[in-house]
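Input record, target 12 of the design panel.
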């Protein structure tokens, strides 16, 4: 049986190699320590803003590529030169997102029913419409992740009298009427939202045969958004005949003048 005993020469070689490794390791450690002393302490990570993003004086602006904006949490979509006579359409490209609206500097331009900055919900790849309150506004995605949102001002079909169709649609009404008759005919659920400001309001929803009259507050523009099954039928009739025309009345002075002249 061969001997497994290590020779003295071999042991000496191993000891020398181990000592050399220890020496190299020590020099590397010294280099790291010296470098850290020269560079100084690592900079502290900037704390995130604790509040609504539009209240942050250092809030950034998202990047624009065509009609699509991409940003990080806390950044704004700065829209300038909007046509206030046309609806704005927004689509989230990355899923569910809350969206708030302010002036360019985070100032309040319109309020919700509670006196707060208005917000609405964007669903993935679904169109959401609103009435622009000013030419220059800021939109604030309230998201914890990077986001992408497309913003356009499409030419929607104008609603006048009665308009009918099948499947999803968006129409805009400009006029003095404040109510409309909505009819739905569908085996599957459909719904109609009305938009007179920033957030849509549910007007009609359900399946089967539905006929309902809905009203809205005074507004220069009303957007009707029909959604649901693509084979569902719908009809919208604006009650323009219901717009009252003021009846001329006599003033007290005119009535007295007529009595005098007839005397």
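The sequence produced for target 12 reads:
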């Amino acid at each position: 049986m061969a001997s497994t005993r290590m020779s003295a020469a071999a042991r000496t070689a191993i000891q020398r190699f181990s000592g050399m490794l220890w020496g190299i390791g020590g020099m590397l450690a010294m280099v790291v320590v010296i470098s850290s002393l020269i560079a100084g302490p690592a900079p502290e990570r900037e704390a995130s803003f604790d509040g609504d993003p539009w209240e942050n004086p250092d809030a950034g602006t998202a990047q624009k590529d065509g009609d699509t904006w991409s940003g990080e949490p806390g950044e704004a979509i700065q829209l300038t030169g909007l046509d206030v006579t046309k609806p704005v359409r927004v689509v989230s490209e990355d899923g569910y997102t809350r969206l708030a609206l302010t002036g360019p500097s985070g100032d309040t331009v319109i309020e919700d029913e509670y006196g707060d900055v208005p917000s609405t919900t964007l669903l993935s790849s679904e169109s959401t419409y609103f009435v622009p309150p000013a030419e220059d506004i800021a939109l604030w995605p309230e998201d914890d992740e990077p986001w992408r949102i497309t913003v356009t001002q499409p030419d929607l079909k104008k609603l006048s009298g009665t308009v009918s169709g099948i499947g999803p649609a968006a129409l805009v009404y400009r006029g003095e009427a404040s109510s409309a008759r909505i009819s739905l005919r569908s085996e599957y659920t459909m719904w109609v939202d009305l938009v007179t400001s920033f957030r849509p309001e549910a007007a009609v929803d359900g399946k089967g045969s539905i006929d309902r009259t809905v009203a809205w507050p005074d507004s220069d523009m009303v957007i009707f958004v029909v959604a649901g099954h693509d084979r569902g039928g719908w009809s919208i009739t604006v009650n323009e005949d219901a717009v009252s025309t003021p009846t001329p009345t006599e003033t007290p002075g005119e009535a007295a003048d007529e009595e005098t002249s007839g005397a």
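Residues 1-15, 42-47, 245-249, 251-256 have pLDDT under 50 and may be disordered.
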